[in-house]
Every structure is written in C-alpha cells, then in structure tokens.
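Ops channel
N.P.: pipeline sanity check, posting one input/output pair.
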C-alpha cells in the first residue's frame, strides 16, 4: 500500500464516529486526501461493533442537549441508509414499562421530552400494551416508541468503509496513534510519520489521552464501563418488541432491558460494570498497569465520595456477574419467562464514559473540543451510533470548516 506522508484530514479511530466524519468530509470535499488510522485489523472492533444495534428514537434526552438534536435525525438517516444499501433492519419498536406506580410520572416525563424533541411517542395503557406483546407487563401505563429499530452495527460500519475505499479514502489498519511530534505531525505505533492539515480524534476509549497531547481534555478522563448481554436460546422467545424499564434520569445508563436483535434473537442487558482498564473485556486481556492504577484511583475516589451514587451503582452492577441475579432483573417486565433459556453470554463491550474531574460527575451529553489544527470527540456514548450521521455533520460544520 502506498501511504503518503501528508493528508488534508487524519482521522484517528475507525469506529462509527470516525467513519461518519470521513463520509461527511468525503462528500463535501471529494478531492481531499483523507486517511483513517485504526489500531485494530478492521473498523468497528470496539464500542461501535459491540453495541446492541438499537436505533434509538430520541425521547430520553432534554431538548437542550446535543443527543436530543441528533437522535431523531440520526434514526431516520441510518434507517434510510440501511434501506438504500440493502442492509438488515428490524422494525421491532419499543416500550418503556413501569414496574411500580411511582414510576408512572417518569413515563409522562419521557413522553414530554419526546414530544419536545419531535419524536413519535405516546403513553399507552395495559390493554394497548397487550395488543403489541401479550407477554409484557406494566403498572397501568407504558411509553410506546414505534420508530425504534435494530440494525447490525458491524454490517453498517463495513458498508460505510467500503464506500469510502471506493471513493479514495485511505485506511491504515494495525496502525494506531503513538504520539504527537511537532505541529500536526504524528507518529504511529509502527513509527510512521504522518502529517495532516486537520487531525480529528475519534479514538473512543483513548480519545482523552490523545487530546491531552494537543492541549485538550484538561477537565476530563475516561472511566470505562463493561456492558454484557445474555442471549436467549430457548424455544419460545419471551418478547416480540424491545422492552425497557423506566430509567434513572440522573445517570446515562438505561437499566437491564430486552433487545430484539436485527436477526430476531432476544437478549437482556447490558451490565454497566466499572472496568479496571480501558480494554478490560475479559480476564487479563489487554491488561495495562498504568491504566489500572489511574482508573482504580478515580473509581475509589467516586466510591468513597459516592458522587452520583457511584457506590450503589458499582455494588449493584458487580452483582450482575451472577447470572441468576442478572436474569431476575428482567423478570418483572414479563408475565412468563423461561430463565434457563438465557444461557449464552454475548461478546462484552466497553463504554467509553467521560468523567468531569472537577465535578466528579459522568458527562451525559456529547463533548467536542478543538482548534484550527485538531478536533477531539471526547464523549460519544449511547446513542452515538444512532446519532452518528448528523453528529458528523455538526462536527464538520462547527469545528472543521467554520
């Protein structure tokens, strides 16, 4: 492969955000030289390829957030992309159910947020819920989202990559970022020097570390959370529709829920277990002592200060390693459930969750920092996959060409 030393745009990271920004730049500036550096052997090897594949509708987020701005648009744009390119999509819809009367007020709050965001949602009663899925239960009322769907995130990512390759975008795999040299010249892990007019950091779990080399992310650090699903392998599927509990709106996690995948399988999850290093998927794989010390230090700080109820969250999440405990969290949302049918752990993912070091709070919305030379996407957590196309347009217009 003939790799140049100079590019208009260097994109660090081949996840869905990096791919979407490359797509946006390629469409706007087809003659520009773009390179995507990815430390793994292919795109979407981390969060982008390990997420649930849910195309969220956009009713969880307050109207003043970037997530609210981009989720509705992203849902439609990704849906259109899948249909236009003959990619798999499951129009499985979604309900949020109340497990007690005290949660009904949050059901109405979610409807209010959805309405403000222009999302098609409505509160339904138990009878209407039964028409959608006779096995799902709620306390009086539920929220119905007809525009929630599921796709195959790896298939989508591969499709974007292949189109970019055809359009002349360069991909360099097994070649991660090592350090910044002078100006906008970087050194790769294999000691290759590459320069770019703009460097765009979409490195996910390592975005904060790279940003610090360019003078950004002073107030932030990544705290990784491990997400694991349990797949149902029994005969009679427990649900036909995505079923979520009422969330705690003070934190960014949505609780254990049922997801109907693009190929029709049902799984429950995810966990949100604090991880001990950035790629702490299983065992001691990708172990990094320096990351362990740094992340454990922050987790201990949060545990003892109990910021945003981290102590309770950590204890509850660690319990989910017990499969029976994990399954029992999903039983109250359905009438009957063959617990033995959930017998296969899915491939774990790591959520690159940004922490504000000053306030000791998890950052709920997208965060981008940068200047005329470099742009750093520091917090692109769920529903970043859904938001990826309009979010990429926002980054390009506000931070790259403005």
């Amino acid at each position: 492969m003939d790799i140049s030393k100079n590019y208009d745009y260097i994109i660090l990271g081949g996840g869905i955000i990096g791919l979407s920004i490359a797509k946006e730049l390629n469409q706007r500036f087809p003659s520009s030289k773009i390179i995507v550096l990815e430390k793994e052997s292919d795109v979407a090897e981390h969060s982008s390829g390990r997420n649930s594949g849910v195309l969220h509708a956009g009713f969880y987020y307050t109207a003043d957030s970037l997530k609210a701005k981009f989720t509705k648009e992203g849902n439609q744009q990704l849906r259109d992309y899948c249909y236009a390119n003959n990619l798999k999509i499951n129009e499985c819809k979604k309900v949020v159910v109340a497990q007690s009367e005290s949660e009904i007020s949050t059901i109405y709050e979610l409807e209010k947020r959805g309405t403000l965001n222009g999302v098609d949602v409505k509160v339904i009663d138990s009878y209407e819920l039964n028409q959608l899925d006779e096995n799902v239960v709620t306390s009086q009322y539920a929220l119905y989202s007809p525009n929630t769907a599921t796709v195959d995130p790896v298939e989508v990512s591969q499709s974007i990559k292949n189109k970019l390759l055809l359009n002349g975008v360069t991909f360099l795999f097994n070649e991660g970022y090592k350090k910044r040299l002078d100006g906008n010249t970087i050194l790769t892990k294999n000691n290759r020097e590459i320069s770019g007019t703009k460097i765009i950091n979409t490195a996910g779990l390592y975005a904060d570390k790279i940003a610090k080399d360019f003078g950004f992310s002073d107030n932030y650090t990544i705290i990784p959370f491990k997400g694991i699903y349990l797949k149902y392998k029994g005969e009679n599927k427990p649900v036909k529709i995505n079923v979520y509990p009422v969330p705690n709106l003070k934190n960014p996690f949505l609780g254990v829920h049922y997801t109907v995948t693009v190929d029709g399988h049902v799984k429950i999850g995810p966990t949100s277990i604090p991880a001990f290093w950035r790629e702490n998927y299983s065992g001691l794989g990708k172990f990094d002592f320096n990351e362990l010390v740094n992340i454990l230090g922050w987790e201990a700080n949060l545990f003892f200060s109990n910021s945003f109820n981290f102590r309770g969250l950590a204890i509850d999440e660690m319990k989910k390693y017990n499969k029976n405990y994990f399954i029992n969290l999903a039983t109250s949302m359905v009438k009957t459930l063959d617990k033995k049918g959930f017998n296969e752990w899915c491939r774990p993912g790591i959520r690159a969750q940004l922490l504000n070091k000053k306030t000791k709070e998890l950052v709920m919305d997208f965060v981008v920092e940068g200047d005329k030379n470099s742009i750093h996407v520091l917090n692109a957590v769920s529903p970043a996959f859904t938001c990826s196309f309009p979010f990429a347009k926002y980054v390009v217009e506000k931070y790259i060409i403005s």
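N.P.: looks fine end to end. The chain has two domains: 1-53+152-219+365-402, 220-357.
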